[in-house]
Amino acid sequence: MDSIALLIAASMNAGTLLALAALGLLINERAGIVNLGAEGMMLVAAIAGFATAVHTGNDWLAFAAGMAAGALLALAFGLLVIWLNTNQYAAGLALSLFGTGFSAFVGLRYTQEKLGPRPSFEIPGLADIPFVGPALFKQHPLVYGGILLMLFLTWFLYRSRAGLVLRAVGESPESAHALGYPVRKIRLAAVVTGGALCGLAGSYMSVIYTPLWVEGMVAGKGWIALALTTFATWRPARVLLGAYLFGFVTMLQFHLQGQGVEVASQFLSMLPYLATIVVLVLISSNANFIRANMPASLGKPFFPGS
After folding, report:
1. In angstroms, how far apart are the furthest CA atoms of the chain?
2. How far is CA 303 from the centre of its chain?
3. Which of 45, 80, 160, 223 could be 202's S-S partner, Cβ–Cβ 3.0 to 4.6 Å?
């Protein structure tokens, strides 16, 4: 039972960094913008956060640095695709490639650096409950922050006027523009916010989840986060559940190895990516279901006055 509790806790921890990035990408896509640069943004944020933690010793400053790095890259991406009308997919891929190379270059001097002892967290009283306490109530505050973010986005998108406007921009930017809403500014704000959340995920990975800096350490998690938005049919609650599911698959390999299960480590390592492919194939087999849930103007440029 103790090992199962630890597996649940580790799954939530691993799922949190996917959830933060995927919720950020969901905001982008609800506004009609596809950003394929999540991998690059997370890598740049990871080295920005890790370097800040090394020099300041403050994890929260590291998170702020990661968010700033992600937001800055997203701002550049947004200006390119929203104001200069460059292709969203090409610009996103370029951002991902840039982030991979830039983070590797900047991170050369940090590969041997180590952070101080990581703080432990627990909720007094609840953490002492057998099984439930170790599984749910000894997490980093950002794990609970991811849950609160999901609840806020659910309220924001479906219960607030600003969320309704954001969804309207993603569904029909021409209609939103005709009603007087600044479509381009709204889309840019959504892109920057999404980039900041991807940055938070990247810095969480290098400062808390790992914690160290290794070139290419995001290792495809940005792409998994991107797939999660489709897997969740653009619903925040489903994004969080999907992130925990992929977190469970990721941590299952270590759990099985710890239990002495004789399975090739290469097969276990590929499980999260195999699960991503299987889920996308299953969802994509029903095109009508995707079209019914996908923002109508996703990936389509908007030209005011056209």
Report:
1. 64
2. 29
3. 45
Classify residue 306: in a domain, yes or no.
no
Provide the pLDDT for residue 128.
Answer: 87
Which H, E and C letters describe the chain, residue by residue? CHHHHHHHHHHHHHHHHHHHHHHHHHHHHHCCCCCCCHHHHHHHHHHHHHHHHHHHCCHHHHHHHHHHHHHHHHHHHHHHHHHCCCCHHHHHHHHHHHHHHHHHHHHHHHCCCCCCCCCCCCCCCHHHCCCHHHHHCCCCHHHHHHHHHHHHHHHHHHHCHHHHHHHHHHHCHHHHHHCCCCHHHHHHHHHHHHHHHHHHHHHHHHHHHCCCCCCCCCCCHHHHHHHHHHHCCCCHHHHHHHHHHHHHHHHHHHHHHHCCCCCCHHHHHHHHHHHHHHHHHHHHCCHHHHHHHCCCCCCCCCCCCC
- Tell me how crowded residue 283 is: count the other CB atoms within 10 A of its CB: 17
Q: What is the pLDDT of residues 174-201, one digit of tens each?
A: 999 999 999 999 999 999 999 999 999 9
Q: What is the CA radius of gyration of the chain?
A: 19
CB 297 within 8 Å of CB 177: no
Query: Looking at residue 289, what is its pLDDT?
Result: 66
Q: What is the CATH number of the domain that holds 25?
A: 1.10.3470.10
Residue pLDDT, tens place only, 20-78: 999 999 999 999 999 999 999 999 999 999 999 999 999 999 999 999 999 999 999 99
> What is the domain extent for residue 49?
2-293
Number of domains, the chain = 1
